[in-house]
Amino acid sequence: MTEAHQTPIEEVLSLLDLEKIEENIFRGVSPKDRMQRVFGGQVLGQALVAAGRTVDGRVCHSFHAYFLRAGDPKVPILYEVDRSRDGASFTARRVVAIQHGRQIFNLAASFQVEEKGYEHQFDMPSVSAPETLIDEHTLRLRDIDKLPAEAREWALRPRPIEIRPVEPLGFPDRGKHAPYDNIWIKATGPVPDDVIVQQAVLAYASDMSLLDTSLLPHGVDWHSGIQMASLDHAMWFHHRFRVDDWLLYAQESPSASGARGFNRGAIFSRDGVLVASVVQEGLMRPRPEKS
Question: Among 30, 214, 253, 280, which one carries the catalytic annotation?
Fold first, then answer.
């Protein structure tokens, strides 16, 4: 399929199909319509794929990443993988993303031979089924006239991940809310069975909404003149899952301080299995009112 006819999820899968240019070195690109900076979820997914391409027969159980500089969407990103350790059960990899000769991002990932052992988990929140809810795109269309002109094109753009809020909070004037937000998420098309691709797409999706949770108690959003940016991102994968089936993303923000918002997420399959956990801290710096 040509690039011009790709659906949004096909475009994401294409972005994750990195070019190998040398042993342990891969090249990724960004969508051509990104104007200002590379989306953090894209870099997370691409770096995880780069690490996974150097591992055989083991599955990523966790990664920890730091965003160091804004990515430039106009030039490729080089991903350099350090094969830190290959042990009897665990494999460690470190990935550095480079643009213009400087690190923009780094990721440490751990892979494990799949094993059986003791199991327990928290229960999934009791929420409405996704089929009974309205998708976020439809909700944005309802309020399109309330958005600034420069934000309308962004609001109308098709997304690779469908989001259905359990309790819609309003858009864009949502007021103040407790720092909790449950949403159903699903890829808008099929995703290959390859476990590293499934994980990379979920990593991509996990960065789309989590940082917003720290804004909920303050009655502000991305269009309120707040300087927002992901600082770090960590994920733990507990069980296999399908990102092209509905997953509940239970998000909460226990704290905000020092112009940073701290957020946690628990991701459940439809049948209540906790498949992944997420932690993220992000910059949420109030900007002075323009006079």
Answer: 280
Q: Is 255 a known active-site residue?
A: no
Candidates 207, 209, 251, 253; catalytic one: 207
CATH among 3.10.129.10, 1.20.1250.20, 3.40.190.10, 3.90.1310.10 for 1-115: 3.10.129.10
Active site residue 227: no
Q: Determine which one of 42, 99, 198, 230 is catalytic.
A: 230
Q: How many CB atoms lie within 10 A of CB 87?
A: 12
Domain boundaries, the chain: 1-115, 130-291
Percentages helix, strand, coil for the chain (3-state, rounded to 5) are 25, 35, 40
pLDDT in tens, 61-107: 999 999 999 999 999 999 999 999 999 999 999 999 999 999 999 99
Short-list 214, 226, 220, CA closest to 286: 226
Give pLDDT tens digits for 132-141: 999 988 888 8
**181 catalytic per annotation:** no
Determine whether domain 130-291 maps to CATH 3.30.70.120.
no
